[in-house]
Structure formats: structure tokens, C-alpha cells
Design brief:
By secondary structure, the protein is mainly β. It has five helices and 29 strands. A hairpin with a 3-residue loop joins strand 27 and strand 28. The radius of gyration is 23 Å and the shape is globular.
Length: 522
């Protein structure tokens, strides 16, 4: 550790990106352990207007490009010329280049072990995801690829693409991150030899004054919460997307399209049974307050590009299509910052209701809603020339039964590859998260997270649970029926350097598991 501290004191800044992206906790990890956590920390301790729509443009990318990317494996800009490993670039000057590109190799080696490393599995003919404990150890888990970023005129781009090769101890290994996993067996079928797969995230965007058009593969994260946003959540499975981000004074408007899948990657049903997502988010930032509205519409075996228009109210458009082929939601959130130290926030998510009275009674599935509340506190300290960023975040989320579901299985659920797009606890759940974290000089990170989680076991607890028939709206619901408390204590520590990173994470009590990673970017 003393060597790490010495290196941290002289290391330069980490790799930049033209996009402020959601966290990557399951794959494609970069050298930073939790960049979005500190993006929220910056909003908590800063003075600027607060907006909670991600991914979005990082306006400092071009200004700092030579400083942050000049030591890349390959580098070129039209002012300083070309360089290999930073040779011959000289010091950054005051002239901003019109064109710049940097390329690095990126990768790492992982160890994952625990009682439920691959715990989300398909069950039954109706493709219902269930939580099952599958003990597995992934070792070694090796990934490597290219990290490419740059800009030219009004265009900027970033690509992180990698190949994975894993060894599994389980006889029938499952995908850890929810996407496809290819199993390579020995010729005599005596057992699993290794698994392999590819993953990537990318953005290719056009910028013009007050608007940005972005083609990408990523995850949308809308709202002031970090762990438990209800409409679109950063811990969902990635999907291909198109977004239009507009800034009009204090008002931010985003319209986006997401290309979702219902079945696994190799299922031929994906060819005909499509699921398309349209969403709008409106944020008004006034002083220390931020008001947000998010609306979603899911179309099954249907495609209506008109829904991308940001002034087309999706909750009204929903009535123009059959109930079986479309689903929608509406959520409201509010955030307020106090003394540049604390954020208080909440979100209410409405999936479906018959009338306001049905929400008050809340005794049958005609009331499908969720609620989240939380606070974040943070402060930056300076001690003997060292910067310490410290904070805590606490969130409570309640998701009623049948939220994110639909009338028929595998149709217009608010989900991608069987996982919710919103709160990852899914329908019929309660989650309490509390994390205390700190970072020294931007390089040494430590945190202790506690999670209390309850999940109902009766019908209505999975996104693919439905109620056929004409009287489905009057079926009674039972919140957290059969639920048992799961408590997880997760300490983590990491070193984040310019070229290398190391992360150690251990989950104790329930759902015991361990995660160790050594990463590099060159």
C-alpha cells in the first residue's frame, strides 16, 4: 500500500471521455471504481445547476484532451501532431485543436467467487427470470481490447470494445452480467473448458450549440437517485440507443429511443418479436432545486418513430395503440441541495392505475406504483496538501407487485433481456442502501456499503408475471408476501492510477461473494 500511495502522489489524471456515463459494475470496468458516484458527489458539493440525465456530454473533454490523453498509446491532434506514448507532444498550449484522437489498449484480470455469481437464470417455457443460487468461481476472467476516443469539428466519439475469456468452476455456468455467454466445451464433452464473449459500449455524437444528437450503446440513468432510480436505472443491462439532448436556459429536455430484446441472444424469436422503447425527460433546474418528469412507452412488434418527438406526450400517445402491444409509465422526481453539502431527493413512479382512488386503496393490481427517497452528503477536505473527498448516500425504495409487467408474457414489459430497466429489485420489493465512501487524491478509494433487501415470492414478483383474462385489474395484490430479509455488508478498497488499477470487494452475511480485479490502460 505504501508503494501505491507513493505512485498516487505523482500520477496524472485518468482517461477522459466525451460522455459522462453511468457506472459499469459488471463488465467493461475502467480504471476508476465509481466515477458516477463522484459525479453525484460533485453535484452535491458544487454550486452549478443540478441535472440528473445520463449519459450526457462532458464539456471539459476537448479543453483537457492533450493533458488527459497525451500519454495514450497512439495520439494525434492537428495542433501538436502525432505521438506514441506521449513522445514529442510537448506541453499543452492555449490553442484548442479542431481534431484529436487517442487510442489505448485496455483490459484486466478478474476473480469472482460466491454463492450466487450467476444467479439470474431463465426458467420455464415462458422465459421467467428467477433468483437462483448458483455457486460458481470465475478464475481467471481475462478481458482486453481497445479504448478509442476523439473529436473532429462538432463530432465526438468514444468506443470501449473488449473480448472476454473466463474459466468457471460451475458445471453449467451462467452469464454474470445478464448478456450472452458462449460456452466452449472439450471435444469429448467431458466438461467446460472455457467461456468467451464480447462486450462494448460506444457513443458517436453531433453537437450544435444547444442540442446534441447521440448514437450509442449504453444505459440511461434518469433521476437524482444513485442506486434505486425507478424509471431508468444505470445498473440495467446495456442496449443500443439514439438520444437527443437539448438545453434551453434552465430547462433540459432529452428524447431517446432504445432497441430492446425480449429473448436471449441466440433465440430466433428476436427476429419477429421486437420491443422498442421511447422516452422523454424534462428537467428544470432553479437555484438549488431540480424538478424532473420522465415518461416511457414500450412498443411490442410495433415501431412508431413519431414518439421520438420531444413535444409528443407519450402518456397521451399510449391511448392510440392496443393495450396488448404497448405499455407506458410516468414518474416525477425532486431534488434539493442544502449548503453545498447535502442533497435531499425523491421519485414517484406510476406504471398503471384505474383512478386516484385506486392508488389510495392500494389493494389490487390496478395500482402499480413505486416510490424512492434518499439523501446524499459530502465534503472535500484538504490535509497537508492531500485532497480527501468524503461522503455518504442513503436510499429507500418500495416497488409494488406487478410494476414493470404487462398483460401478456414477453410483450411490452419495461425490461430488457428479462431484467427491469428501472429499479433492479424488480416488482414486489423493498431496498435500503447505505454507503459511506472516501477518495484520497483521486486515487485511493474506500467504501462500506450496507444493503437491506426484501423480495416477495408470490405471483407478481417478476417482470414477466401477468394476469390473463378480462378481470385482471381487480386481482388482489400482497406486498412482500413471503419475503425474507437479506442483509449484505460490502467493504471495498481500490487504487486508481494513470496506467493501472486494483480493486478488492467482499460481500458478507447474506449472498456472500468476493471480487478482485487488476486493470490496465496503456
Amino acid at each position: 500500500m505504501s508503494c501505491f500511495l507513493l505512485v498516487a502522489g505523482v500520477s496524472e489524471s485518468l482517461a477522459a471521455s466525451p460522455v459522462i456515463e453511468p457506472e459499469r459494475t459488471r463488465n467493461l470496468r475502467t480504471l476508476e471504481t465509481a466515477p458516477m458516484l463522484f459525479e453525484y458527489h460533485r453535484q452535491t458539493t458544487g454550486n452549478e445547476r443540478q441535472y440528473f440525465t445520463y449519459p450526457r456530454r462532458d464539456t471539459t473533454f476537448r479543453k483537457n484532451f492533450a493533458k488527459t490523453e497525451g500519454d495514450a498509446l497512439l495520439y494525434y491532434d492537428n495542433v501538436r501532431g502525432a505521438g506514441v506514448l506521449g513522445n514529442g507532444l510537448g506541453s499543452p498550449d492555449s490553442v484548442n485543436p479542431r481534431f484529436g484522437i487517442a487510442a489505448s489498449i485496455i483490459g484486466g484480470i478478474d476473480y469472482r467467487g460466491g454463492e450466487s455469481v450467476g444467479d439470474q437464470v431463465w426458467t420455464g417455457r415462458d422465459y421467467r427470470y428467477e433468483k437462483k443460487s448458483i455457486a460458481d468461481t470465475i478464475w481467471p476472467g481475462i478481458d482486453g481490447g481497445i479504448y478509442l476516443r476523439g473529436f473532429i469539428d462538432s463530432v465526438d466519439f468514444v468506443l470501449d470494445a473488449r473480448i472476454y475469456d473466463e474459466g468457471h468452476s460451475a458445471k453449467n455456468p451462467r452469464s454474470y452480467d445478464g448478456e450472452f455467454l458462449e460456452v466452449q466445451r472439450e471435444e469429448n464433452n467431458s466438461g467446460v473448458e472455457y467461456t468467451s464473449y464480447a462486450r462494448y459500449r460506444t457513443h458517436f455524437a453531433f453537437n450544435y450549440d444547444w442540442l446534441r444528437l447521440d448514437f450509442g450503446r449504453d444505459v440511461m440513468h434518469w433521476g437524482p437517485g444513485y442506486y434505486n432510480n425507478l424509471s431508468l436505472n444505470q445498473f440495467a443491462v446495456p442496449y443500443n440507443m439514439l438520444s437527443l439532448d437539448m438545453m434551453i436556459g434552465p430547462l433540459r429536455v432529452m428524447s431517446f429511443y432504445g432497441d430492446l430484446r425480449i429473448y436471449g441472444s441466440f433465440d430466433m424469436k428476436n427476429r419477429d418479436e421486437t420491443r422498442n422503447l421511447f422516452g422523454h425527460r424534462y428537467e428544470l433546474a432553479v437555484g438549488n432545486a431540480t424538478f424532473g418528469i420522465s415518461e416511457l412507452q414500450i412498443l411490442y412488434k410495433n415501431m412508431k418513430p413519431w414518439l421520438f418527438v420531444p413535444t409528443a406526450p407519450l402518456f397521451m400517445e399510449k391511448g392510440n395503440y392496443s393495450e396488448s402491444s404497448n405499455n407506458g409509465s410516468l414518474s416525477f422526481d425532486f431534488n434539493y441541495r442544502l449548503f453545498n453539502t447535502v442533497r435531499l431527493y425523491t421519485e414517484f413512479f406510476l406504471d398503471d392505475m384505474e383512478s386516484p382512488i385506486s392508488l389510495i386503496k392500494n389493494d389490487n393490481i390496478e395500482a402499480k406504483w413505486a416510490w424512492m427517497a434518499g439523501f446524499q452528503a459530502g465534503h472535500d477536505f484538504y490535509y497537508k496538501g492531500h485532497k480527501i473527498e468524503a461522503g455518504t448516500i442513503f436510499e429507500y425504495a418500495r416497488v409494488e407487485p406487478y410494476v414493470y409487467s404487462h398483460f401478456e408474457k414477453n410483450t411490452a414489459q419495461i425490461a430488457h433481456l428479462g431484467f427491469p430497466l428501472g429499479n433492479q429489485g424488480g416488482p414486489n420489493s423493498r431496498t435500503i442502501d447505505w454507503n459511506v465512501f472516501a477518495r484520497l487524491d483521486g486515487h485511493i478509494f474506500a467504501s462500506v456499503r450496507q444493503t437491506w433487501f426484501w423480495k416477495g415470492t408470490d405471483y407478481g414478483s417478476a417482470v414477466n408475471d401477468t394476469t390473463p383474462g378480462s378481470n385482471h385489474m381487480k386481482l388482489p395484490k400482497h406486498y412482500l408476501k413471503g419475503a425474507k430479509l437479506q442483509y449484505m455488508l460490502t467493504p471495498a478498497i481500490s487504487y486508481e492510477g494513470q496506467r493501472f488499477s486494483f480493486l478488492g470487494e467482499l460481500t458478507l452475511i447474506d449472498d456472500k461473494k468476493a471480487y478482485i480485479r487488476a486493470g490496465f490502460k496503456w
